[in-house]
Write a structure and sequence with these properties.
By secondary structure, the protein is of the alpha+beta class. It has 16 helices and seven strands. Bound molecules: iron/sulfur cluster. Iron/sulfur cluster binds next to helix 10 and helix 13.
């Protein structure tokens, strides 16, 4: 648990001019990047940015953040929005559970807290999707509460500063948090947190850290022992390679899409029918089997339309997209299945592979339109 230092602990703390918090604070004031979420103390806006920044880079987040605040400028607007609109605004950021949790939390805040984001740790962390990191970050950055944050950047900086060997893990995190709590400044704790995160992002990078420019080099055990490149020890990450087939089935200008189940991976998003190729199957056999299993119908005249690669969570996916036709059998009705025109497809939230297919279909359509308008 991220314990708040008590008043006596804070008052006892001395911060001489050459202390680590002072040095890193001065560096931060001069070198910090101007980022949209750093220009505000609004807890909702800071919260949105912190959720988006988990697993996603700053440059990728900025356009999403700006658009999100245009669509949902405050917690009430987010709570009122239908889930489909929320997921659509998140499309492409991945880890869609983050968007679902934010939406649910906004509804909880409007229902239980009168629309105000709770400023107390226990109340805030009880909201859907809020873990110790998000709670500490929002309460520190928006409400100036003295909670240290521990994200991937701070973890790396801290492990190097204190010379922690081995891989990052929960036990090392607990020790690190205790150490950071021990030097947490009496004033400007929010800036101290931001400074540690910024140092990790700009100077103390995973590879080739810029130690010669580092304001806390004289405190750094890893630098002194020359181990800055091997701390923390790399995680063993293995990606699973999979091949999937997808069927683009159209009828009178409308495309068949279906919604994924409300629970599990990519829950509630829409997609074109298809699935994983099994061992020993040809691509066409896999397509026919998947469509039969999912829709209960046969398809024919499969033509390979395009091949895509994308990655999500721990999967690297090669996606084979076929255009095909329904065989004669009628398509059984289902509430999770729709025939949707090309323009209306834009309103549905898709995982990144299906979103790329939609863009391909739009490009192909506009090429056709151009050819028609130019004529033979
Ligand atoms: S001296 Fe190097 S390794 Fe140590 S905190 Fe600074 S950038 Fe990181």
């Amino acid at each position: 648990m991220n314990r708040l230092p008590n008043r006596a602990e804070l008052m006892d703390r001395k911060e001489p001019d050459g202390s680590l918090p002072r040095k890193i604070g001065r560096w931060y004031r001069t070198h910090r990047r101007r980022l949209p979420w750093r220009e505000t103390k609004d807890p909702y806006k800071i919260w949105v940015s912190e959720v988006m920044l988990q697993q996603t880079t700053v440059n990728a987040v900025i356009p999403y953040y700006v658009r999100w605040l245009e669509l949902f400028p405050d917690i009430q607007a987010l709570a009122r929005a239908p889930l489909r609109r929320v997921l659509k605004a998140w499309e492409g950021l991945g880890y869609y559970q983050r968007a679902r949790n934010l939406h649910q939390a906004a509804r909880t805040i409007c229902r239980k807290h009168g629309g105000s984001i709770p400023a107390e740790f226990e109340e805030f962390i009880a909201l859907p999707g809020v873990g110790p990191y998000i709670a500490a970050a929002v309460l520190s950055l928006a409400f100036d509460k003295p909670y240290p944050v521990l994200d991937a950047n701070v973890r790396r900086v801290g492990m190097r500063l204190y010379g922690f060997q081995g891989k990052a893990n929960a036990r090392a995190d607990a020790v690190l948090l205790a150490r950071i709590r021990g030097i947490f400044p009496v004033e400007n704790g929010a800036d101290f947190n931001q400074a540690l995160m910024e140092l990790g992002a700009l100077i103390c990078r995973p590879k080739n850290p810029g130690c010669l420019l580092c304001p806390v080099q004289s405190f750094c055990r890893a630098y002194q022992s020359g181990e800055q490149e091997v701390i923390p020890a790399p995680k063993s990450r293995s990606f699973q390679q999979i091949e999937t087939v997808v069927g683009i089935i159209s009828d009178q200008g409308k495309y068949l899409i279906q919604q994924r189940p409300a629970q599990g991976l990519l829950a509630g998003l829409w997609e074109f029918p298809g699935g994983k190729r099994e061992k020993g199957e040809t691509l066409r056999e896999a397509l026919r089997r998947e469509i039969k299993e999912e829709l209960g119908v046969e398809v024919r005249r499969e033509r390979l339309l395009l091949k895509l690669r994308h990655a999500y969570t721990r999967f690297q996916v090669e996606l084979f997209v076929f255009e095909c036709e329904l065989d004669r059998s009628p398509l059984p009705r289902s509430p999770n299945r729709r025939w949707v025109g090309l323009r209306a497809l834009k309103r549905y939230p898709f995982p990144s592979g299906s979103a790329q297919i939609v863009r391909f279909l739009e490009d192909r359509d506009s090429e056709k339109q151009k050819r028609v308008s130019v004529g033979p």
